[in-house]
Amino acid sequence: MPSHPLVDLAIQSVKHHLENGQPLPCPDPLPEELQVQAGTFVSIKKNGLLRGCIGTITPKYANLAEEVIQNAIKAANEDPRFPAIEIDELEQLTFSVDVLTKPEKIDNLTSLDVKHYGLIVRSEGKRGLLLPDLENIKTPDQQLKVCLKKGGIKESDNYELYRFEVKRHH
User: Domain spanning 104-169 has what CATH number?
Assistant: First the structure.
């Protein structure tokens, strides 16, 4: 099964960066569907286990292509949980690209469905985020606990909740 064009772009971006030490140039001409702006997350897995994941909640770059190119490079090289990806690993890796909707403020967890919505928790300059539909996350409470931990936020702190949707491409 061929992969989605955004996934192909993420793979090309990492390969190009590993081979040339610089970002892949933005496609030109840019297809219309890549001219939009959106936050994206690029996830890289090896043998089914996470190997790197970096993204943007809101767009930082001029278009979706540039967002994927930059986040793919960062997922491969800058995820603090993992060493940088080496070129000889490329064949063993699988990539996915999540395109995020604009975050929407929610008052509590009742409107959260972990299969459908990701969660952002914000508190005094700190932020924790979790994408939706993750294998080990079954309840909104679990989702909240992971977000608090990722953001270094205590359960007793004042925090705001935001939900968002993603289109996941493999």
Answer: 3.30.1490.150
